[in-house]
Amino acid sequence: MSTPNQALALAALNHQSNLTKPQGSLGKLEELAVWFAARSNSAIPGRLQPAIVVFAADHGVVAEGVSAFPKEVTGQMVANFVGGGAAINVLAREVGASLSVVDVGVASSYSTVVTSGAQLFRVPVRAGTGNLRVEPAMSEPECHKAWSIGVGSAQEGFIRGKTLLIGGEMGIANTTAAAALICALTGIEPEEIVGLGTGISATSREHKVQVVKDALVRARAAGAVSAKDWLMHVGGLEIAALAGFYTGAAEAGIPILLDGFITTAAALVAVKNQPRVADWLLASHVSDEKGHRHALAALQLEPLLALGLRLGEGSGAALTIPLIQSALALHREMATFSSAGIATKE
Ligand SMILES: O=C(O)c1ccc[n+]([C@@H]2O[C@H](COP(=O)([O-])O)[C@@H](O)[C@H]2O)c1
Ligand SMILES: Cc1cc2nc[nH]c2cc1C
Predict the structure, then answer these.
(1) What are the φ and ψ backbone dihedral angles of 340, each rounded to 5 degrees?
(2) What residue spans define the domains of the chain?
């Protein structure tokens, strides 16, 4: 596991204090520049090379009526990513990030056309998970396989010289799995965590709360203790891949920008499994999904933005890239008091 470089953080902090502005006047942007310096090879890091990897999979718990959309939408959206028409395609183009999609367990068939929308890797571990209310979402070997695919994606980012990794997800019903994981790993009650996902009614949400409660009772009775036990019992294939992706990024020493509710659940799994993954995490935004702020608080993360988003796909993280690039450009390009011949504070 890589560790941030505190000497570089100190040098970056010192550099910030020489820039032509009252100290602290750029608020969180100053903290961001110092945070990235400690996670790069220079006190004055260059422009970030971001990569977005969207992991897609289906969820057996969709049979419980916990989503506003049918399960076929997962595969249809994968085709949309490849075609270049999804929100994340637009945002990745806008911010100059590479985009790939990894099918780790889409259940329905979908066809893709040859386009430059996103590179697709079809490596399904199984055709969607089991219904976590009544059975384990996946077996231990399946969980391990999905996790390893995520680690491999992060390693590929390292090989390609990427300096910021963003995991996105697509999976109808995955807010149910994410909620169950967050409850299991934080001890917070489902009533506080379960939200409306793609837009279910208040009545359907009550049912979703019960589904999560049943899943937690079942998994606990089956002996779930560790983060990986819980992942196997109530998680999802794309969530397992994301947890592996974050672990691989931390091992390679690449900063991670989290997206919404589901990616934060995956980060919780990764951190409970290996606490030093936390050193590499940054939260882009707080989603509108009810329990997201609790999950971020459990990771001691403060989101940069609050825009009422609840899309997933890595969209909130992508939106934050220009802010981060600006923080780094200011750190790199601003004049110092001495170079500009400006008097410092009395
Ligand atoms: O990222 C979020 O905070 C978020 C919040 C609500 C929904 N989503 C997306 O919506 C899908 C899951 O919603 P649901 O209702 O099917 O569980 C999945 O594809 C996610 O990417 C994402
Ligand atoms: C259309 C659609 C797009 C999505 N992107 C991420 N989750 C999604 C869920 C739906 C339903």
Answers:
(1) -95, -5
(2) 6-46+330-340, 50-321
Give me the interface pTM, i.e. the ipTM.
Answer: 0.99
- Strand order through the sheet with 281-283: 119-122, 98-105, 50-57, 164-170, 256-258, 281-283
**Helical residues (DSSP H) of 104-255, grouped into ranges:** 140-159, 174-186, 190-193, 202-221, 227-234, 237-252
Asked if 167 and 259 touch (Cβ cutoff 8 Å), the reply is: yes
Q: What is the pLDDT of residues 211-233, one digit of tens each?
A: 999 999 999 999 999 999 999 99
Give the predicted TM-score (pTM) of the model.
Answer: 0.98
Tokens of 33: 């520049």
Measured from the Cα of 309, ligand 1's closest atom is: 3
Ligand 2 near 271 CB (within 6 A): no
Give Cβ neighbours of residue 136 (< 8 Å, ≥ 6 apart).
130, 219, 222, 232, 233
Give 6-46+330-340's CATH code, choosing from 1.10.10, 3.30.1490, 1.10.3470, 1.10.1610: 1.10.1610
Residue 113 CA to residue 116 CA, distance in Å, equals: 10
| Chain centre to alpha carbon of residue 341 | 44
In short, whether 101's Cβ falls inside 6 Å of ligand 2 is no
The conformational region for residue 168 under phi > 0 = left, psi -120 to 50 = alpha, else beta, is beta
